[in-house]
Q: What sequence folds into this?
């Protein structure tokens, strides 16, 4: 089989860190190669070298037998490499057609070949089953549709090799299944795909061959037929990791209750409409939903960052009249924010400063407005040890921590005061398998201790593993809660797409195997 | 070419960078001196001699540095919170106005009381001017760069009106100047036969105080946190709006004290040429110091030396004193570039 793409002994160093260490890879025509690895394993670096964003220190890239000049993204595109990023690179205020042709037209040509572009786009979208209205504004599209625009963008540039970076992170199970259908069609037509993911089920479902990257090296390579979850998980982490499971517990008194809460939409956000929710002690309540359906607003309310327009929010029996983050924390809410870098920490401040940032005005951290550096340092060192934060020391800049260690810092800050309610918003997002197991263990330990946990996540596997009850948020409305033991991923997927699972679902795109993300 | 974030910039590099940057600025300006036909070495030697070459020169440099330390601190504190206070000049004049209002006979107090009262009044006047743009920024998200900058012109025209009208000294022979500060309100000189006054000590104490506040207090922590990541600070429970207001009071207050110092320490009465742009130069001082309070003292001395030295050089050789402005501007630019080079490394490809 002739290789369309070869990476030959790629090595890339950043200072003392070896991001890629002699990585060789070849991709056959019509093949789906899954690249599996934890965060920091070197997947992204490798793809950036392939795409010309970085120059490898050693090794080279060949496309169809011809060497690709290093450090030239234009050459990579011209050679037929297309990349679909995890975070879309689309202009919301332009139409689908505009987004697709953007950058392909010469700036010096006074007219645009719009009619030709349009007919090419329509024929491409019907050929690959990527139905889209060329004149729709990208801002009005769903996440799944935006991803189709990204794929069409790559195809429009005659991509023969498609790199998909964590493509299902933002999709519902049904959308993921429809993406897989598309990918299968592309492969039938001779395209080759590199599929980057850390979701094992997806890799098993879509790929022909798996390569596992760990600490910059290929540690495992096998045809997908002979792989299974355990082999892959162990190869990825380097040791056997099992995520903790929740033991059944009897729920206690309510710690959070939201009654008929409504919130007007803020700029670019959705409204919350009549949200009712109760979380009790010794209980994990999971909120499922496709991102952008009101999770942010819900989390902001409970974090004390916003105030409902109507309805009541009660924490530990006390109705919140004037919420503020400081008040909510004082009442006993431990908060794990969705975006570690933007909200969770102040990256350019030190670890100790971030460790105390929620207790600035309380003894023993400060006294009469003066910060007690000794007390702050002692607490930080204690928590670094207790929560196993791997870092050079309390004075290190927080932005230099890995995702998992940054999350441990946030967990330490939120959980060490033994909160009665834990708000965990996407707590495992972007973490590797070992760190996920740690975060899940900490959340379950909090539940064991008597805290109620509100878990907001887009990952159904995580949701169902941890939750006692689950509810689905869609367009700012929260469903009644369901028993996590009896609900199926398929039902949740339908609810996440706005359907009532009890209605006739024959008109919707269901998947036979119950959703690939689960 | 691409920029790559350095994991941990080495300390020696961070310390050496501003020195090298200033060296680069001197080299750039050497080109201009060559253009005038004068000898570069002679010009720079005259500049250094004019800045620090004699007791008189040194005293003049320190006198010039006094308001620059304060306006530099004003900019540094505000910029730490990402409150872009460009209104130091106006706040300085408000401080000077307050000192004039209370110090020309309205209060009859001994010096030990009157001087602190004038300083505090000036600080309050300067601070309250900056409160307004800060409130508008908090409530309406109006860019404070625009509001603080424009307030400068409003305040200057207001002072102009007062000096031509209500505050005009009848004994001034028609010059637009206010009545002199009473003797009890004047700052003592700290060096004989020079213009150097107690304001320098006040400015140095202010720098020390700001350094302590930034390093050891909750307020300082909050200012840094809000500046570095306002969303993260708000999430952690820091009241961002209150921090901005507090920062505005401190920053405007410092600029106000600079104005008081010039009136009661140097000139003795308020005129419209009280400040040759100390409020704006303070921004350059703060940038050159990378917003560090102690660094502000060093960079204020440096810039004051350039201005004073360039004046004296301009009298000796045929080089326009505007060279000082060019030198200051290119120093700031070079330092900004050097700061970037400390944080990032340039890589090919």
A:
């Amino acid at each position: 089989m002739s290789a369309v793409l070869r990476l030959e002994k790629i090595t890339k160093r950043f200072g003392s860190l070896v991001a890629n260490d002699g990585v060789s890879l070849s991709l056959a025509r019509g093949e789906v190669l899954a690249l599996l690895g934890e965060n920091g394993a070197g997947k992204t670096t490798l793809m950036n070298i392939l795409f010309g964003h970085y120059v490898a220190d050693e090794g080279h890239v060949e496309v169809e037998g011809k060497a690709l000049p290093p450090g030239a993204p234009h050459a990579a595109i011209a050679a037929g490499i297309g990349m679909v990023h995890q975070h879309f690179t689309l202009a919301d205020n332009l139409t689908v057609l505009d987004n697709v042709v953007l950058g392909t037209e010469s700036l010096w040509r006074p007219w645009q070949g719009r009619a030709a572009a349009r007919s090419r786009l329509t024929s491409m979208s019907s050929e690959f089953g990527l139905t889209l209205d060329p004149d729709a504004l990208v801002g009005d599209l769903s996440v799944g549709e935006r991803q189709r625009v990204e794929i069409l963008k790559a195809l429009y540039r005659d991509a023969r090799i498609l790199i998909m970076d964590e493509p299902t992170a933002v999709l519902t199970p049904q959308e993921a299944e429809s993406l897989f259908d598309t990918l299968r069609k592309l492969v039938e037509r001779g395209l080759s795909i590199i599929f980057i993911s850390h979701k094992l089920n997806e890799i098993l479902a879509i790929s022909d061959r798996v390569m596992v990257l760990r600490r910059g090296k290929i540690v495992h390579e096998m045809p997908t037929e002979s792989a299974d979850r355990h082999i892959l998980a162990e190869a990825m982490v380097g040791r056997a990791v099992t995520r903790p499971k929740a033991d059944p517990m009897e729920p206690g008194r309510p710690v959070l209750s939201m009654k008929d809460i409504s919130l007007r939409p803020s700029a670019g956000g959705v409204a919350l409409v009549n949200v009712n929710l109760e979380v009790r002690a010794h209980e994990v309540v999971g909120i499922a939903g496709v991102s952008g359906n009101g999770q942010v607003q819900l989390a902001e309310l409970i974090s004390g960052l916003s105030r409902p327009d109507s309805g009541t929010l009660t924490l530990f029996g006390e109705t919140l009249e004037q919420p503020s983050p400081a008040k909510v924390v004082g009442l006993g809410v431990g908060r794990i924010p969705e975006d570690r870098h933007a909200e969770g920490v102040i990256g350019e401040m030190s670890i100790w400063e971030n460790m105390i940032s929620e207790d600035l005005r309380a003894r023993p951290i400060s006294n009469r407005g003066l910060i007690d550096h000794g007390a702050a340092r002692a607490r930080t060192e204690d928590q670094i040890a207790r929560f196993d934060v791997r870092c050079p020391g309390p004075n290190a800049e927080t932005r230099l921590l890995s995702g998992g260690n940054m999350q441990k810092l946030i967990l330490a800050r939120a959980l060490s005061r033994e909160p009665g309610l834990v708000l965990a918003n996407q707590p495992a997002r972007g973490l590797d398998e070992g760190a996920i197991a740690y975060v899940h263990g900490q959340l379950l330990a909090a539940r064991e201790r008597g805290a109620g946990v509100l878990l907001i996540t887009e990952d159904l596997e995580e949701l169902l593993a941890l939750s006692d009850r689950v509810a689905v948020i869609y367009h700012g409305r929260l469903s009644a809660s369901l028993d996590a033991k009896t609900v199926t991923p398929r039902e949740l997927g339908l609810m996440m797409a706005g359907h009532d699972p009890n209605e006739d679902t024959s008109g919707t795109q269901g998947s036979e195997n119950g959703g690939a993300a689960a | 070419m691409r920029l790559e974030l350095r994991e941990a910039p080495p300390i020696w590099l961070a310390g050496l960078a501003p020195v090298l940057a200033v060296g680069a600025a001197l080299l750039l300006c050497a080109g201009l001196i060559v253009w005038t036909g004068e000898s570069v070495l002679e010009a720079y030697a005259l500049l250094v001699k004019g800045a620090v070459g004699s007791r008189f020169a040194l005293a003049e440099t320190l006198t010039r540095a006094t308001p620059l330390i304060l306006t530099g601190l004003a900019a540094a504190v505000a910029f730490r919170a990402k409150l872009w206070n460009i209104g130091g000049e106006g706040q300085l004049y408000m401080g000077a106005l307050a000192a004039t209002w209370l110090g020309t006979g309205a209060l009859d107090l001994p010096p030990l009381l009157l001087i602190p009262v004038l300083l505090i009044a000036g600080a309050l006047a300067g601070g309250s001017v900056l409160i307004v743009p800060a409130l508008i920024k908090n409530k309406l998200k109006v860019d404070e760069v625009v509001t603080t900058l424009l307030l400068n012109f409003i305040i200057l025209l207001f002072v102009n009106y007062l000096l031509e009208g209500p505050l005009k000294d009848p004994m001034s022979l028609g010059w637009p100047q206010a009545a002199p500060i009473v003797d009890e309100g004047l700052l003592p000189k700290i060096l004989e036969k020079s213009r150097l006054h107690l304001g320098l000590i006040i400015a140095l104490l202010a720098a020390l105080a700001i350094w302590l506040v930034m390093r050891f207090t909750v307020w300082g922590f909050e200012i840094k946190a809000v500046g570095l990541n306002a969303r993260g600070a708000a999430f952690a429970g820091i009241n961002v709006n209150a921090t901005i207001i507090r920062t505005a009071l401190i920053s405007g207050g410092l600029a106000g004290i600079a104005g008081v110092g010039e009136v009661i320490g140097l000139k003795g009465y308020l005129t419209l040429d009280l400040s040759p742009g100390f409020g704006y130069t303070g921004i350059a001082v703060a940038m050159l110091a990378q917003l560090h309070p102690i660094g502000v003292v060093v960079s204020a001395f440096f810039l004051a030396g350039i201005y004073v030295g360039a004046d004296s050089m301009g009298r000796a050789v045929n080089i326009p004193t505007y060279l000082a402005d060019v030198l200051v501007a290119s120093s700031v630019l070079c330092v900004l570039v050097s700061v970037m080079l400390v944080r990032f490394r340039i890589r090919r490809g």
User: Anything to note?
Assistant: The two ends of chain A are 34 Å apart (CA to CA). The first helix of chain A runs from residue 43 to 50. The CA atoms of residues 128 and 185 of chain A lie 6 Å apart.
